[in-house]
Amino acid sequence: MQPHAAHSPMDHASIVLREVFGFDSFRPVQRDVIASVMEGRDTLAIMPTGGGKSLCYQLPALVFEGLTVVVSPLISLMQDQVRSLTAAGVEAVVLNSSLDAQAYRDNMSAVSRGRAKLLYLAPETLFKSSTMQLLSSCRVAVLAIDEAHCISEWGHDFRPEYRQLASVRASFPHAVCIGLTATATPRVRDDIASSLGIADAARFVASFDRPNLLLRVKDRERPIAQLMDLIGRHEGRSGIIYCSTRNRTETIARSLRERGLRAMPYHAGLDEKVRRRTQEQFVRDDIDIVVATVAFGMGIDKPDVRFVAHHDLPRSLESYYQEIGRGGRDGLDAECLLLFGRKDLSTIEYFIQQKPDAEQRVARLQLSRMLAFAESTICRRRPLLDYFGETADGEGCGQCDICNEPQPELEDITVDAQKFLSCVYRTGQAFGSGHIIDVLRGSKSKKVTGRGHEHLSTHGIGMNRDATQWRQIARQLVQHGLLVQDLTHGGLRLGEAAGQVLRGETTVQGRVCAPETSRKQRRRSSAPKPALVHDEALFEELRRVRKKLADDAGIPPYVVFPDRTLVEMAAHWPMTEPALLALHGVGATRLARWGSPFLDAIRSWK
Ligand code: ADP
Ligand code: MG
Ligand code: ZN
Fold it and tell me: Does the structure show a pLDDT above 70 at 530?
């Protein structure tokens, strides 16, 4: 890369941004972070997942003389970045245990001969004496610690090897140190700065709002149908479905495959080789959907994930946020759907009870924040951003189900509440809502008759509502404190104010969805609108061109060009190289390497 004659370092940075990365502008906090690093100040960058942290050290690396050392916890993350940098014409290498001896030597020599601008490694490789020796002979300009929260025991992903990074920092006193993380809590942020020995570092915190994520929460009623509906809105695109158990990832992946979808399970119990293959297939668009436990995550930097679904309630808003953060990293819209089943609460409570007392309190608090989000009746971004200490716009975001979808008016559900409460009372305040609903709906099942519950006066008085509606009513009675749920067994008993309702002294306002039959006829809700009007068929054709090029080169399609570039091609129909160069994500190297097959496809398109 030839340095350009430019007025200021930031002008120079803007040119590199355009010519190498093909981006028009910095994202808000990126500019500040990069300016700080280029002034030689130690810097801590706190930006949400997908916020563009990598660029904060990749770009200075190209402007500075000398080497940028990037410490990253996962091999797959490093390889992904090296692939993308190489595709953009940047000399970047990785040193880790996955390389064979020859490749390792080649990469060492690329560093010692000063050819590599960036060197990626895991902390354990950095501590090796051969590495330290190599680095002592180079000029290390920047030391970047990615996923820096791994250094903190208070973080959600503590890695003991990260602890030793403090001493490494001391070995390169002249290098600028930059720590990067998406961690939300102030405690971890402080911990990172002090552990890295950069307590005085300039700190930059980006907003945790991700406006391109459409947030939706639905009662989990018929999960497969609900997931199919979601997938149908993003046909042939990449998505992740999170489940709380390994078993469930397998059954759901199987159901989806039986319906003709390219879906695979992913969890820690699977063989390492199988997991790697699934991840690779996903990254290369050979499968569309991964059904996973939380084990699937940090190694995934795939930018074009169009939906993230949660089959089960996450344990905390922090983990939920990190998981949905894997959607829409390229800045295009992605849909996040949480299927909320109150049954999950008893499972979570069970796990909480296995913890030591002190942790139980924290876990319950986290759960309550999660519920504030899941059961919100106001814009979902309020409870979400509130968690990160930010205040959401008072107007509402226009990108969540509460803001976008007609919310049913509150109606008077006093009579239904009385029926339900008295049924709870008459069955002895020991059963979960499933049994109560069976009794209300007049079931003659063994479970009902075995207890003589078909003789109760409340048997069959609830035919006016279907089971789904009753479940919804039950949840609201719990929310209002009229019922108290035993979180271990799920049994319901009357809450304090229940008597007043039963005696008709107060009314209950609530929401009840339409009955089953009309729900089935309801039209599919429309997909979030794409940002740019473009020719869908051409876009699909360009995806095929990209897939072929990627397969031939043995790299993921998004490394060739991101989706956004293809969308812009299908909107602007560039016919010449300069026209192509003007598009998002097209730099000089990518243009030279991959421009012409796309130009051909566009020229011959009618
Ligand atoms: P993070 O590490 O913060 O999760 P990444 O560095 O992986 O995020 O970047 C996420 C996506 O954003 C990538 O696809 C990247 O190419 C894109 N990106 C980063 N900076 C910009 C920018 N200034 N303009 C456009 N896209 C960007
Ligand atoms: Mg990152
Ligand atoms: Zn909203």
Answer: no
- Rounded to whole angstroms, the Cα distance separating 435 from 481 reads 20
Domain 213-404 is found in CATH 3.50.50.60: no
Q: Which atom of ligand 1 is nearest to the CA of 23?
A: 24
Compute the average pLDDT of residues 39-55.
Answer: 93
Phi first, then psi: what are they for 36, rounded to 5°?
-65, -45
Ligand 1 atom index nearest CA of 56: 6
Classify domain 536-605 by CATH number.
1.10.150.80
Top CATH class, 9-205: alpha beta
- Measured from the CB, is residue 18 less than 6 Å from ligand 1? no
Q: Which range among 259-268, 380-389, 546-555 shows the weakest confidence by mean pLDDT?
A: 380-389
Indicate whether residue 14 lines ligand 1 (CB < 6 A).
no
Question: pLDDT band at residue 296, thresholds of 50, 70 and 90?
Answer: confident
**All CATH 3.40.50.300 domain ranges in the chain, comma separated:** 9-205, 213-404
Question: Which ligand sits nearest to residue 381's alpha carbon?
Answer: 3
Q: Which atom of ligand 1 is nearest to the CA of 25?
A: 23
Q: Assess if CATH 1.10.10.10 describes domain 411-510.
A: yes
Q: Label residue 229 exposed, middle or buried (CB < 10 Å: 0-12, 13-18, 19+).
A: middle
What confidence score (pLDDT) does residue 531 get? 64
